[in-house]
Protein backbone atom coordinates (compact mmCIF):
# COMPACT_ATOMS: atom_id res chain seq x y z
CA UNK A 1 0.00 0.00 0.00
CA UNK A 2 1.36 3.34 -1.01
CA UNK A 3 1.08 6.17 1.48
CA UNK A 4 0.35 9.55 -0.01
CA UNK A 5 2.32 12.40 1.47
CA UNK A 6 0.20 15.38 2.39
CA UNK A 7 1.33 18.48 0.55
CA UNK A 8 2.37 21.29 2.85
CA UNK A 9 -0.17 24.05 3.03
CA UNK A 10 0.64 27.63 2.06
CA UNK A 11 0.02 28.62 5.64
CA UNK A 12 2.59 26.16 7.04
CA UNK A 13 5.09 27.21 4.36
CA UNK A 14 4.60 30.83 5.34
CA UNK A 15 5.00 29.88 8.99
CA UNK A 16 8.32 28.11 8.31
CA UNK A 17 9.54 31.10 6.35
CA UNK A 18 8.63 33.41 9.22
CA UNK A 19 10.42 31.12 11.70
CA UNK A 20 13.58 31.14 9.58
CA UNK A 21 13.46 34.93 9.28
CA UNK A 22 13.04 35.29 13.03
CA UNK A 23 15.98 32.94 13.72
CA UNK A 24 18.14 34.90 11.29
CA UNK A 25 17.12 38.16 12.94
CA UNK A 26 17.97 36.77 16.39
CA UNK A 27 21.42 35.85 15.08
CA UNK A 28 21.98 39.34 13.65
CA UNK A 29 20.44 41.16 16.60
CA UNK A 30 23.64 41.06 18.63
CA UNK A 31 25.02 43.69 16.22
CA UNK A 32 22.44 46.20 17.35
CA UNK A 33 22.01 48.04 20.65
CA UNK A 34 19.42 46.72 23.09
CA UNK A 35 16.26 48.80 23.28
CA UNK A 36 13.76 48.96 26.11
CA UNK A 37 10.24 49.87 25.08
CA UNK A 38 8.00 51.59 27.62
CA UNK A 39 5.60 49.41 29.59
CA UNK A 40 3.51 52.34 30.77
CA UNK A 41 -0.10 52.93 31.74
CA UNK A 42 -2.32 55.73 33.00
CA UNK A 43 -2.53 55.60 36.78
CA UNK A 44 -5.32 57.67 38.33
CA UNK A 45 -4.00 60.55 40.44
CA UNK A 46 -6.41 59.59 43.22
CA UNK A 47 -4.43 56.36 43.58
CA UNK A 48 -1.02 57.98 43.02
CA UNK A 49 -1.66 60.47 45.81
CA UNK A 50 -3.24 58.01 48.21
CA UNK A 51 -2.24 57.01 51.72
CA UNK A 52 -2.19 53.29 52.54
CA UNK A 53 -3.26 52.66 56.11
CA UNK A 54 -0.70 49.85 56.36
CA UNK A 55 2.91 49.68 55.30
CA UNK A 56 3.39 49.09 51.54
CA UNK A 57 6.44 46.93 50.83
CA UNK A 58 8.34 47.10 47.56
CA UNK A 59 6.60 43.96 46.25
CA UNK A 60 3.17 45.32 47.19
CA UNK A 61 3.72 48.63 45.37
CA UNK A 62 4.96 46.88 42.24
CA UNK A 63 2.13 44.34 42.40
CA UNK A 64 -0.51 47.07 42.69
CA UNK A 65 0.82 48.71 39.52
CA UNK A 66 0.99 45.39 37.65
CA UNK A 67 -2.63 44.57 38.57
CA UNK A 68 -4.05 47.94 37.55
CA UNK A 69 -2.16 47.97 34.23
CA UNK A 70 -3.28 44.40 33.53
CA UNK A 71 -6.90 45.37 34.23
CA UNK A 72 -6.64 48.31 31.80
CA UNK A 73 -5.07 46.13 29.09
CA UNK A 74 -7.28 43.01 29.40
CA UNK A 75 -10.96 42.07 29.65
CA UNK A 76 -12.78 41.19 32.86
CA UNK A 77 -14.50 37.78 33.00
CA UNK A 78 -18.21 37.20 33.57
CA UNK A 79 -17.69 36.97 37.33
CA UNK A 80 -15.90 40.32 37.54
CA UNK A 81 -12.35 38.96 37.84
CA UNK A 82 -9.23 39.95 35.96
CA UNK A 83 -6.49 37.32 35.64
CA UNK A 84 -2.73 37.67 35.48
CA UNK A 85 -0.17 34.96 34.86
CA UNK A 86 1.91 34.53 38.02
CA UNK A 87 5.17 33.86 36.17
CA UNK A 88 4.72 36.91 33.90
CA UNK A 89 3.75 39.06 36.87
CA UNK A 90 6.90 37.94 38.69
CA UNK A 91 8.91 39.22 35.71
CA UNK A 92 7.18 42.61 35.86
CA UNK A 93 7.94 42.81 39.57
CA UNK A 94 11.60 41.94 39.07
CA UNK A 95 10.95 38.90 41.27
CA UNK A 96 13.52 36.31 40.17
CA UNK A 97 12.62 33.59 42.68
CA UNK A 98 10.44 30.54 42.08
CA UNK A 99 8.91 31.01 45.53
CA UNK A 100 5.42 31.86 44.30
CA UNK A 101 4.10 31.27 47.81
CA UNK A 102 5.63 34.63 48.74
CA UNK A 103 3.71 36.28 45.89
CA UNK A 104 0.45 34.67 47.00
CA UNK A 105 0.99 35.95 50.54
CA UNK A 106 1.72 39.42 49.14
CA UNK A 107 -1.49 39.25 47.08
CA UNK A 108 -3.51 38.50 50.21
CA UNK A 109 -1.78 41.34 52.05
CA UNK A 110 -2.57 43.77 49.21
CA UNK A 111 -6.22 42.68 49.32
CA UNK A 112 -6.47 43.81 52.96
CA UNK A 113 -4.95 47.29 52.63
CA UNK A 114 -7.29 50.27 52.94
CA UNK A 115 -6.35 53.40 50.97
CA UNK A 116 -7.31 57.00 51.68
CA UNK A 117 -7.53 58.50 48.19
CA UNK A 118 -6.53 61.85 46.65
CA UNK A 119 -4.99 63.31 49.80
CA UNK A 120 -3.25 66.12 47.86
CA UNK A 121 -6.66 67.69 47.25
CA UNK A 122 -6.67 68.68 50.93
CA UNK A 123 -3.22 70.23 50.55
CA UNK A 124 -3.84 72.52 47.55
CA UNK A 125 -2.32 75.98 48.18
CA UNK A 126 -5.33 77.72 46.59
CA UNK A 127 -8.19 77.80 49.17
CA UNK A 128 -10.93 77.57 46.51
CA UNK A 129 -9.42 74.34 45.17
CA UNK A 130 -8.73 72.83 48.55
CA UNK A 131 -11.11 70.01 49.48
CA UNK A 132 -11.56 70.03 53.24
CA UNK A 133 -14.43 67.57 53.59
CA UNK A 134 -14.49 65.28 50.52
CA UNK A 135 -12.45 62.12 50.84
CA UNK A 136 -12.70 58.40 50.10
CA UNK A 137 -11.26 55.37 51.83
CA UNK A 138 -11.62 51.79 50.59
CA UNK A 139 -9.81 48.62 49.66
CA UNK A 140 -8.82 48.44 46.00
CA UNK A 141 -8.93 44.67 45.56
CA UNK A 142 -11.73 43.04 47.61
CA UNK A 143 -11.25 39.46 46.34
CA UNK A 144 -8.23 37.47 45.15
CA UNK A 145 -7.81 33.79 44.23
CA UNK A 146 -5.41 31.50 42.38
CA UNK A 147 -6.34 29.18 39.52
CA UNK A 148 -4.01 27.19 37.21
CA UNK A 149 -0.92 29.35 37.52
CA UNK A 150 -2.89 32.60 37.47
CA UNK A 151 -3.96 35.12 40.07
CA UNK A 152 -7.55 36.31 39.73
CA UNK A 153 -8.59 39.56 41.37
CA UNK A 154 -11.52 41.96 41.51
CA UNK A 155 -11.35 45.77 41.64
CA UNK A 156 -13.66 47.61 44.00
CA UNK A 157 -16.80 48.27 41.96
CA UNK A 158 -17.12 51.79 43.38
CA UNK A 159 -13.63 52.68 42.12
CA UNK A 160 -13.50 50.87 38.78
CA UNK A 161 -14.35 53.83 36.55
CA UNK A 162 -11.84 56.12 38.25
CA UNK A 163 -9.11 53.47 38.21
CA UNK A 164 -9.61 52.07 34.69
CA UNK A 165 -10.64 55.27 32.86
CA UNK A 166 -8.97 58.09 34.78
CA UNK A 167 -9.56 61.68 33.73
CA UNK A 168 -6.42 62.81 35.53
CA UNK A 169 -3.47 60.46 35.63
CA UNK A 170 0.28 59.95 35.80
CA UNK A 171 2.09 57.83 33.20
CA UNK A 172 3.72 55.04 35.22
CA UNK A 173 6.24 52.82 33.44
CA UNK A 174 6.58 49.34 34.97
CA UNK A 175 10.05 49.05 33.47
CA UNK A 176 11.21 52.06 35.51
CA UNK A 177 9.70 51.09 38.86
CA UNK A 178 10.92 47.53 38.28
CA UNK A 179 14.50 48.81 38.71
CA UNK A 180 13.93 50.20 42.19
CA UNK A 181 15.04 48.35 45.31
CA UNK A 182 13.30 50.66 47.77
CA UNK A 183 9.54 50.92 48.30
CA UNK A 184 9.93 54.62 49.08
CA UNK A 185 11.55 55.20 45.67
CA UNK A 186 8.44 53.84 43.93
CA UNK A 187 6.14 56.06 46.00
CA UNK A 188 8.18 59.25 45.48
CA UNK A 189 8.74 58.51 41.79
CA UNK A 190 4.99 58.19 41.23
CA UNK A 191 4.41 61.36 43.22
CA UNK A 192 6.92 63.25 41.05
CA UNK A 193 6.38 61.84 37.56
CA UNK A 194 2.83 63.22 37.39
CA UNK A 195 4.32 66.74 37.47
CA UNK A 196 7.16 66.19 35.00
CA UNK A 197 5.56 68.39 32.31
CA UNK A 198 4.87 71.13 34.88
CA UNK A 199 8.39 71.06 36.30
CA UNK A 200 7.56 70.97 40.02
CA UNK A 201 5.25 69.09 42.37
CA UNK A 202 2.62 70.72 44.56
CA UNK A 203 4.17 71.67 47.94
CA UNK A 204 2.94 69.20 50.55
CA UNK A 205 3.40 69.14 54.31
CA UNK A 206 6.23 66.77 55.09
CA UNK A 207 4.09 64.66 57.44
CA UNK A 208 1.55 64.08 54.65
CA UNK A 209 4.37 63.07 52.31
CA UNK A 210 5.64 60.74 55.03
CA UNK A 211 2.20 59.08 55.19
CA UNK A 212 2.09 58.68 51.37
CA UNK A 213 5.52 57.05 51.39
CA UNK A 214 5.36 54.99 54.60
CA UNK A 215 1.63 54.51 55.15
CA UNK A 216 -0.48 55.79 58.01
CA UNK A 217 0.28 52.95 60.38
CA UNK A 218 2.01 53.73 63.63
CA UNK A 219 4.96 55.97 62.72
CA UNK A 220 8.27 54.72 64.10
CA UNK A 221 9.88 57.19 66.47
CA UNK A 222 12.81 57.30 64.08
CA UNK A 223 10.73 59.29 61.60
CA UNK A 224 8.94 61.65 63.98
CA UNK A 225 11.47 64.34 63.07
CA UNK A 226 11.98 65.55 59.52
CA UNK A 227 15.77 65.27 59.64
CA UNK A 228 15.59 61.53 60.23
CA UNK A 229 12.87 61.01 57.62
CA UNK A 230 14.99 63.01 55.20
CA UNK A 231 18.25 61.16 55.91
CA UNK A 232 16.77 57.64 56.02
CA UNK A 233 14.04 57.87 53.37
CA UNK A 234 14.02 60.95 51.12
CA UNK A 235 17.70 61.32 50.28
CA UNK A 236 18.42 57.61 49.55
CA UNK A 237 15.26 57.43 47.42
CA UNK A 238 16.29 60.51 45.42
CA UNK A 239 19.73 59.01 44.80
CA UNK A 240 18.13 55.81 43.51
CA UNK A 241 15.61 57.69 41.35
CA UNK A 242 18.20 60.00 39.80
CA UNK A 243 20.37 56.98 39.07
CA UNK A 244 17.77 54.53 37.72
CA UNK A 245 14.67 56.47 36.63
CA UNK A 246 13.84 58.52 33.53
CA UNK A 247 13.55 61.76 35.52
CA UNK A 248 15.79 64.02 37.58
CA UNK A 249 14.51 65.18 40.97
CA UNK A 250 15.65 67.96 43.29
CA UNK A 251 14.10 68.75 46.68
CA UNK A 252 12.96 72.20 47.77
CA UNK A 253 12.03 72.80 51.43
CA UNK A 254 9.92 75.53 53.04
CA UNK A 255 10.55 76.44 56.67
CA UNK A 256 8.84 78.31 59.45
CA UNK A 257 11.70 79.47 61.59
CA UNK A 258 14.01 76.46 61.80
CA UNK A 259 11.26 73.87 61.28
CA UNK A 260 10.60 72.31 57.87
CA UNK A 261 6.94 72.60 56.87
CA UNK A 262 6.48 71.63 53.21
CA UNK A 263 8.42 69.60 50.69
CA UNK A 264 8.39 70.24 46.95
CA UNK A 265 10.25 68.40 44.20
CA UNK A 266 11.67 70.06 41.08
CA UNK A 267 11.21 67.49 38.30
CA UNK A 268 12.71 67.26 34.81
CA UNK A 269 12.93 64.48 32.25
CA UNK A 270 16.37 63.10 31.47
CA UNK A 271 18.03 63.52 28.08
CA UNK A 272 14.99 65.12 26.50
CA UNK A 273 16.01 68.32 24.78
CA UNK A 274 12.78 68.15 22.79
CA UNK A 275 10.72 68.77 25.93
CA UNK A 276 12.55 71.96 26.85
CA UNK A 277 10.35 74.94 26.19
CA UNK A 278 11.15 77.26 23.32
CA UNK A 279 11.12 80.89 24.42
CA UNK A 280 7.45 81.91 23.94
CA UNK A 281 8.54 85.49 23.14
CA UNK A 282 10.26 84.18 20.00
CA UNK A 283 7.25 84.53 17.69
CA UNK A 284 9.08 83.19 14.65
CA UNK A 285 10.11 80.01 16.52
CA UNK A 286 6.59 79.48 17.85
CA UNK A 287 5.21 79.95 14.34
CA UNK A 288 7.69 77.41 12.99
CA UNK A 289 6.66 74.86 15.64
CA UNK A 290 3.01 75.30 14.69
CA UNK A 291 3.81 74.89 10.98
CA UNK A 292 5.88 71.76 11.61
CA UNK A 293 3.11 70.17 13.69
CA UNK A 294 0.58 70.90 10.93
CA UNK A 295 3.01 69.32 8.46
CA UNK A 296 2.98 66.10 10.49
CA UNK A 297 5.89 66.25 12.95
CA UNK A 298 5.29 65.70 16.66
CA UNK A 299 5.46 68.76 18.89
CA UNK A 300 8.50 67.42 20.72
CA UNK A 301 10.42 66.84 17.47
CA UNK A 302 9.42 70.31 16.25
CA UNK A 303 10.80 71.84 19.45
CA UNK A 304 13.98 69.84 19.09
CA UNK A 305 14.42 71.05 15.50
CA UNK A 306 13.99 74.69 16.61
CA UNK A 307 16.61 74.10 19.32
CA UNK A 308 19.10 72.88 16.71
CA UNK A 309 18.41 75.30 13.83
CA UNK A 310 17.34 78.95 13.42
CA UNK A 311 13.64 79.47 12.78
CA UNK A 312 14.30 81.16 9.42
CA UNK A 313 16.22 78.13 8.19
CA UNK A 314 13.47 75.73 9.30
CA UNK A 315 10.67 77.80 7.73
CA UNK A 316 12.66 78.15 4.49
CA UNK A 317 13.22 74.39 4.31
CA UNK A 318 9.55 73.77 5.07
CA UNK A 319 8.47 76.12 2.26
CA UNK A 320 10.94 74.45 -0.10
CA UNK A 321 9.62 70.99 0.84
CA UNK A 322 6.00 72.04 0.30
CA UNK A 323 6.87 73.47 -3.14
CA UNK A 324 8.74 70.28 -3.97
CA UNK A 325 5.74 68.12 -2.99
CA UNK A 326 3.41 70.31 -5.10
CA UNK A 327 5.65 69.98 -8.18
CA UNK A 328 3.83 67.39 -10.30
CA UNK A 329 6.73 67.19 -12.77
CA UNK A 330 9.13 65.90 -10.12
CA UNK A 331 9.28 62.39 -8.67
CA UNK A 332 6.88 61.57 -5.85
CA UNK A 333 8.24 62.04 -2.32
CA UNK A 334 7.25 58.89 -0.45
CA UNK A 335 8.29 60.18 3.00
CA UNK A 336 7.69 63.95 3.29
CA UNK A 337 8.78 64.11 6.95
CA UNK A 338 12.13 62.46 6.18
CA UNK A 339 12.58 64.77 3.18
CA UNK A 340 11.89 67.80 5.39
CA UNK A 341 14.45 66.69 7.99
CA UNK A 342 17.07 66.39 5.26
CA UNK A 343 16.06 69.75 3.76
CA UNK A 344 16.53 71.47 7.14
CA UNK A 345 19.88 69.76 7.74
CA UNK A 346 21.13 70.69 4.24
CA UNK A 347 19.68 74.20 4.36
CA UNK A 348 17.52 73.83 1.25
CA UNK A 349 15.45 76.94 0.59
CA UNK A 350 17.68 79.18 2.72
CA UNK A 351 19.22 80.72 -0.40
CA UNK A 352 19.25 80.15 -4.15
CA UNK A 353 22.49 78.15 -4.17
CA UNK A 354 21.22 75.70 -1.58
CA UNK A 355 17.84 75.46 -3.29
CA UNK A 356 19.62 74.59 -6.54
CA UNK A 357 21.63 71.95 -4.66
CA UNK A 358 18.38 70.47 -3.45
CA UNK A 359 16.96 70.35 -6.96
CA UNK A 360 20.14 68.64 -8.23
CA UNK A 361 19.90 66.12 -5.37
CA UNK A 362 16.26 65.37 -6.31
CA UNK A 363 17.22 64.90 -9.94
CA UNK A 364 20.07 62.58 -9.01
CA UNK A 365 17.75 60.41 -6.90
CA UNK A 366 15.17 60.33 -9.70
CA UNK A 367 17.64 59.30 -12.40
CA UNK A 368 20.10 57.31 -10.31
CA UNK A 369 20.66 53.94 -12.02
CA UNK A 370 20.26 50.69 -10.15
CA UNK A 371 23.56 49.14 -9.10
CA UNK A 372 24.79 46.67 -11.74
CA UNK A 373 24.80 42.97 -10.98
CA UNK A 374 28.13 41.70 -9.73
CA UNK A 375 30.07 39.92 -12.48
CA UNK A 376 31.51 36.49 -11.99
CA UNK A 377 34.65 36.62 -9.87
CA UNK A 378 33.64 39.83 -8.13
CA UNK A 379 32.88 38.07 -4.87
CA UNK A 380 35.60 39.90 -2.95
CA UNK A 381 34.27 43.32 -4.03
CA UNK A 382 30.70 42.26 -3.23
CA UNK A 383 31.82 41.09 0.21
CA UNK A 384 33.45 44.48 0.88
CA UNK A 385 30.26 46.25 -0.17
CA UNK A 386 28.23 44.04 2.13
CA UNK A 387 30.55 44.84 5.04
CA UNK A 388 30.21 48.56 4.29
CA UNK A 389 26.41 48.29 4.22
CA UNK A 390 26.37 46.30 7.46
CA UNK A 391 28.61 48.85 9.19
CA UNK A 392 26.45 51.71 7.92
CA UNK A 393 23.27 50.00 9.13
CA UNK A 394 24.84 49.43 12.57
CA UNK A 395 25.73 53.13 12.81
CA UNK A 396 22.25 54.16 11.71
CA UNK A 397 20.62 51.76 14.19
CA UNK A 398 22.58 53.36 17.05
CA UNK A 399 21.48 56.80 15.86
CA UNK A 400 17.89 55.58 15.67
CA UNK A 401 18.20 54.21 19.22
CA UNK A 402 19.44 57.60 20.48
CA UNK A 403 16.63 59.36 18.57
CA UNK A 404 14.04 56.98 20.07
CA UNK A 405 15.34 57.60 23.60
CA UNK A 406 14.69 61.34 23.23
CA UNK A 407 10.92 60.78 23.18
CA UNK A 408 8.64 60.33 26.16
CA UNK A 409 6.71 57.07 26.83
CA UNK A 410 3.54 58.17 24.99
CA UNK A 411 5.48 59.08 21.82
CA UNK A 412 7.54 55.88 22.01
CA UNK A 413 4.31 53.89 22.25
CA UNK A 414 2.96 55.70 19.16
CA UNK A 415 6.11 54.86 17.16
CA UNK A 416 5.89 51.19 18.20
CA UNK A 417 2.21 51.04 17.22
CA UNK A 418 2.91 52.61 13.81
CA UNK A 419 5.73 50.12 13.25
CA UNK A 420 3.53 47.16 14.26
CA UNK A 421 0.78 48.29 11.87
CA UNK A 422 3.08 47.83 8.86
CA UNK A 423 4.85 44.68 10.11
CA UNK A 424 3.32 41.56 8.52
CA UNK A 425 5.40 39.01 10.43
CA UNK A 426 3.95 38.63 13.91
CA UNK A 427 7.28 37.60 15.44
CA UNK A 428 8.84 40.91 14.41
CA UNK A 429 6.15 43.02 16.07
CA UNK A 430 7.03 44.94 19.21
CA UNK A 431 5.49 43.73 22.44
CA UNK A 432 5.50 46.03 25.44
CA UNK A 433 8.01 45.13 28.06
CA UNK A 434 10.73 42.91 26.61
CA UNK A 435 10.48 42.27 22.84
CA UNK A 436 12.94 39.73 21.44
CA UNK A 437 16.13 41.12 19.94
CA UNK A 438 15.22 40.33 16.34
CA UNK A 439 12.16 42.55 16.65
CA UNK A 440 14.31 45.29 18.17
CA UNK A 441 16.76 45.34 15.27
CA UNK A 442 13.90 45.25 12.74
CA UNK A 443 12.26 48.17 14.54
CA UNK A 444 15.48 50.21 14.55
CA UNK A 445 15.96 49.63 10.80
CA UNK A 446 12.39 50.78 10.20
CA UNK A 447 12.77 53.82 12.47
CA UNK A 448 15.99 54.88 10.73
CA UNK A 449 14.37 54.69 7.29
CA UNK A 450 11.17 56.36 8.51
CA UNK A 451 13.17 59.19 10.08
CA UNK A 452 15.91 59.84 7.51
CA UNK A 453 14.63 58.06 4.41
CA UNK A 454 16.25 55.40 2.26
CA UNK A 455 20.05 55.82 2.34
CA UNK A 456 21.49 57.13 -0.92
CA UNK A 457 24.78 56.40 -2.65
CA UNK A 458 26.13 59.69 -1.26
CA UNK A 459 25.30 58.54 2.27
CA UNK A 460 27.33 55.35 1.82
CA UNK A 461 30.25 57.20 0.20
CA UNK A 462 30.34 59.79 2.97
CA UNK A 463 30.28 57.02 5.58
CA UNK A 464 33.01 55.07 3.78
CA UNK A 465 35.34 58.08 4.00
CA UNK A 466 35.03 58.03 7.79
CA UNK A 467 36.27 54.44 7.88
CA UNK A 468 39.68 55.16 6.39
Automatic annotation (TrEMBL):
<dbReference type="GO" id="GO:0003887">
    <property type="term" value="F:DNA-directed DNA polymerase activity"/>
</dbReference>
<feature type="domain" description="Initiator Rep protein WH1">
    <location>
        <begin position="46"/>
        <end position="192"/>
    </location>
</feature>
<dbReference type="InterPro" id="IPR036390">
    <property type="entry name" value="WH_DNA-bd_sf"/>
</dbReference>
<feature type="compositionally biased region" description="Low complexity">
    <location>
        <begin position="375"/>
        <end position="384"/>
    </location>
</feature>
<comment type="similarity">
    <text>Belongs to the initiator RepB protein family.</text>
</comment>
<feature type="region of interest" description="Disordered">
    <location>
        <begin position="364"/>
        <end position="385"/>
    </location>
</feature>
<dbReference type="GO" id="GO:0006270">
    <property type="term" value="P:DNA replication initiation"/>
</dbReference>
<dbReference type="InterPro" id="IPR036388">
    <property type="entry name" value="WH-like_DNA-bd_sf"/>
</dbReference>
<dbReference type="InterPro" id="IPR000525">
    <property type="entry name" value="Initiator_Rep_WH1"/>
</dbReference>
<dbReference type="Pfam" id="PF21205">
    <property type="entry name" value="Rep3_C"/>
</dbReference>
<dbReference type="Pfam" id="PF01051">
    <property type="entry name" value="Rep3_N"/>
</dbReference>
<keyword id="KW-0614">Plasmid</keyword>
<protein>
    <submittedName>
        <fullName>Replication initiation protein</fullName>
    </submittedName>
</protein>
